[in-house]
């Protein structure tokens, strides 16, 4: 079909643009997630895995077609979709103080666990008609409204 070449080229260019934007976003976001004392190490490890994936992708495509009889695009596509869903579980960093040390991360995790346990206890004491998730009442800075 004569118009199919343009469609394939359009999808190829769109995919390449998406890969480039994800790579830049990963670079920026991974530098925000790690505490200051290990930021360069975490960023370096993230970049190593990204480059390793870029090196192995053509080999994976070739060997799956030779050994298994199908293209690896299905494997790569499903892993991409799974990764895009897992990214939703990462913490929000917009207008929040980033941790400087690993101890600050541990304290923040303990506070979050304690807050979750307290919220579960509060929900357990309420009757079913007045159940409102207490997470909705917690403000962005982690304090509850008065």
TrEMBL record:
Report domain Major facilitator superfamily (MFS) profile positions: 1-146
Specify the protein's topology with respect to the membrane: Multi-pass membrane protein
Q: Where in the cell is it found?
A: Membrane
Q: Name one GO molecular function term.
A: transmembrane transporter activity
| Source species | Plakobranchus ocellatus
UniProt entry tagged with the keyword Transmembrane = yes
SUPFAM superfamilies noted in UniProt: MFS general substrate transporter
Q: Which UniProt keywords apply?
A: Membrane, Transmembrane, Transmembrane helix
InterPro entries named among the record's database cross-references: MFS_dom, MFS_trans_sf
Q: Name one GO cellular component term.
A: membrane
Q: Indicate what this protein is called per its UniProt record.
A: Solute carrier family 22 member 8
- Transmembrane feature ranges: 6-29, 72-90
């Amino acid at each position: 079909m004569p118009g199919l070449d343009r469609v394939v080229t359009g999808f190829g260019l769109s995919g390449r643009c998406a890969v480039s934007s994800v790579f830049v976003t990963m670079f920026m976001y991974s530098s925000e997630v790690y505490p200051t004392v290990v930021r360069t190490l975490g960023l370096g490890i993230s970049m190593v895995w990204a480059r390793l994936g870029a090196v192995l992708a053509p080999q994976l495509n070739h060997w799956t077609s030779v050994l298994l009889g199908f293209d690896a695009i299905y494997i790569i596509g499903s892993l991409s979709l799974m990764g895009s869903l897992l990214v939703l579980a990462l913490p929000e960093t917009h207008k929040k103080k980033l941790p400087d040390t690993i101890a600050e991360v541990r304290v923040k995790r303990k506070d979050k666990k304690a807050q979750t346990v307290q919220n579960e206890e509060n929900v357990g004491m309420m009757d079913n008609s007045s159940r409102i998730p207490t997470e909705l009442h917690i403000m962005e800075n982690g304090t509850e409204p008065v």
